[in-house]
Structure formats: structure tokens, C-alpha cells
Design goal:
The chain is α/β, with parallel strands linked by helices. It is built from twelve helices and twelve strands. The strands form three sheets. It has a six-stranded parallel beta sheet, with helices on both faces. Strands 7-6-8-9 form a four-stranded parallel beta sheet. Strands 10-12 form a two-stranded antiparallel ribbon. The N terminus is likely disordered.
């Protein structure tokens, strides 16, 4: 008989138990990580694991899910339209989930409330065991009825929701923006402006305004709206801020993204205003190209990879009912990265 037509025998846990000369329950306990709790000897554990490797045995996640009444899947709702490495983030989510026997259903929210609603419904329909939800700029209120129906939720947000039961990771920009404002004020900057999508960056403008107030400056932060596509726009109306008195008199400018900061720096140079001698510029997201701009761009560093890792740790622990594995809320602070667009280096 042609060997290609011969039936392929897929090794099962029963094969592992028989060849390792242990009971089926012992083999199951070892493969499912319960050996220490059941006091199975190290020698027996090694024999079972070695046999499983020799036979090429792979646990069946579907069967495990049926036993535990789980789908062995995790939904991830995240906006990948940002400055972070989207493909790397997806690999991080999927790889970490796979290590624990889960698959991932990844949804790009695009920060669109209607899309988020449909994605949450899809996640529930697929009976995911839990959801990691990066709330972004949207209000959480429209999503609460759907979130409350999911078995487990980890929120990734810019501010805490004290009245909600969900596990939360706070990606906080307050300290980083306070450090940036403190540096600029110490250098004599006293007329601040912000350029970005409004009101989509309310959390940033509020944090900058609070830092200015804490620094003793009474002059309000000047706000200028532009679209997300502004750095690449050729429309004259998108650049109308260049002649506004509050822009032409500003000596410190924050931009919603590094790309917007680069466009603003170019506009300042065209107007004959020197960066940083006359105007300091600070971007946001610390893109890989920030150090290549002229002058090198000071920025606010996000930690999306760390957020993704911590969020997956928490959702898996919640699904597996390891209730004390992590605190209810964790804060990860962004960081002010000084470069010469912000003027002289910070004092040691």
C-alpha cells in the first residue's frame, strides 16, 4: 500500500498515558499543570512530558474548552490607526494568548463608536471568554450594556472609571505632560498652544492646562483644530492657524502627534521662526522617526506593547479565576522624552 494513503494516527492523551505507564488521570494532571498541587513526583512528571514530546502529542484546546465550558478565545478591541507598530501589537496579543491555550479575535475599532458596538456584539456572539478593550477617545457609556454581558473585561483607558467593576489599566499621560510643561516653563516659556484634532484630544489638552495652572501660569492654553490627515494636507484652510495671533505669539507648542509636530515645525521655519530658539515644539507618541527630524523632536512616550502584555496577563488570570493575581487597577505612566526641539536639556 502507498504510504501516502495510509491512515495517520494522531497521538492522544491515552497514548501518552499508556507509553509513560501512568493512569489517564495522572497524564491529564501533568499536561494541564496540576501536578504540583496533586503531589505527582518530579520523576513521573518528566516521564509524561518526555513521552508527550516524543509522540508529538498536542493538547486539544477545543476539548479543553468544552470541559471547562469555555471557547478558549479572547476578544481584543484596539485602535490600530495610531503611531504604534500595529502588526507587532497583534503578534503580541496572539502569541501571549497561544502560550496559554487561547486564540484571539482581534478587532480594529478605529475609535468609531458604531463600529465598537458591532464588534462587541460579534465578540459576544462568538462566545469569547473575555475581552480586552482599549477605550480610546470614545465615551464608555454607550458600550456598558454590552460590556456587562461579557464574562470578563479588561479596560485600557487614559483615565480610571471608579464606578465600574471591570479590571482596568490606566495609560496615564499626566506625569509626562507635567514634566514637559515644567521643563518649558523653567526655560521661560509662557505662551502655550496645542494643535490637534478637537475634541478628540480633550484628555491631552486638559492635562496640559492642569500642568500650566500648577506651574503658576494664568494664560490659557491656545487650541487649534486640525484633522488627523493635517500633516499631509495641501488645503490652505488646514493651515490657516499659521496667521492666528495666538499661534504667531506662542513660544511653546504641543502637537497631538509627532507627525503634526513635524508639520508645525516646518510651518514655523517657513515663517522665519526658529525652533527651539523662539518656539519650543513637543510631539506625542515618540515615533521611531522623532530623532531624525530637524531639530530632533521632543515627545511623549507611550507604552502600547507593555499595555498589551499586561492586559493579556489580566484577562487570562480573570478567565482562569486567579482573582488575586493582579490588582483591580494598574497605572502605567507615559514619559517625557527630551530632544532639542524643546530647548536646552533638563537640569540634572
Amino acid at each position: 500500500m502507498d504510504t501516502l494513503s495510509q491512515p495517520v494516527t494522531i497521538p492522544t492523551l491515552r497514548h501518552v498515558a499508556k507509553q509513560a505507564r501512568v493512569s489517564l488521570s495522572t497524564a491529564s494532571s501533568v499536561m494541564n499543570g496540576h501536578a504540583e498541587r496533586l503531589r505527582i513526583s518530579a520523576k513521573t512528571q518528566e516521564r509524561v512530558l518526555t513521552t508527550a514530546e516524543q509522540l508529538g502529542y498536542q493538547p486539544n484546546p477545543l476539548a479543553a474548552g468544552l470541559r471547562l465550558k469555555r471557547s478558549q478565545s479572547i476578544g481584543v478591541l484596539w485602535s490600530f490607526a495610531g503611531p504604534h507598530g500595529s502588526s507587532q501589537l497583534v503578534r503580541n496579543f496572539s502569541g501571549q494568548a497561544m502560550q496559554h491555550g487561547y486564540s484571539t479575535l482581534v478587532y480594529d475599532t478605529l475609535n468609531d463608536p458604531e463600529l465598537i458596538v458591532s464588534q462587541l456584539r460579534a465578540a459576544a456572539k462568538n462566545r469569547v471568554d473575555g475581552v480586552v478593550f482599549a477605550i480610546g477617545r470614545a465615551s464608555i457609556k454607550p458600550f456598558l450594556p454590552l460590556l456587562e454581558k461579557l464574562p470578563h473585561v479588561v479596560l485600557v483607558t487614559a483615565r480610571p472609571y471608579d464606578d465600574l467593576p471591570f479590571l482596568q489599566i490606566i495609560h496615564c499621560m499626566t506625569r509626562a505632560l507635567h514634566d514637559a510643561v515644567h521643563h518649558l516653563v523653567a526655560a521661560g516659556r509662557d505662551r502655550f498652544a496645542f494643535i490637534g484634532s478637537l475634541p478628540g484630544n480633550t484628555s491631552k489638552t486638559e492635562a496640559i492646562s492642569a500642568a500650566l495652572k500648577a506651574a503658576g501660569l494664568s494664560r490659557p492654553l491656545s487650541l487649534f483644530h486640525c484633522s488627523e490627515a493635517f500633516p499631509f494636507s495641501q488645503k490652505e484652510e488646514d493651515w490657516s492657524f499659521r496667521t492666528h495671533p495666538e499661534f504667531t505669539s506662542a513660544n511653546a507648542i504641543f502637537a497631538a502627534t509627532d507627525e503634526i509636530a513635524a508639520a508645525v515645525t516646518s510651518a514655523l521655519h517657513e515663517a522665519g521662526r526658529k525652533v527651539p530658539e523662539e518656539v519650543a515644539v513637543v510631539g506625542f507618541n515618540n515615533s521611531p522617526f522623532a530623532s531624525l527630524f530637524t531639530p530632533p523632536l521632543a515627545s511623549i512616550q507611550r507604552f502600547d506593547d507593555l499595555l498589551a502584555h499586561r492586559a493579556m496577563e489580566r484577562i487570562i488570570a480573570a478567565i482562569e479565576e486567579r482573582h488575586d493575581a493582579f490588582p483591580h487597577t494598574e497605572t502605567i505612566n507615559m514619559e517625557f522624552i527630551w530632544r532639542s526641539s524643546a530647548g536646552a536639556p533638563p537640569a540634572p
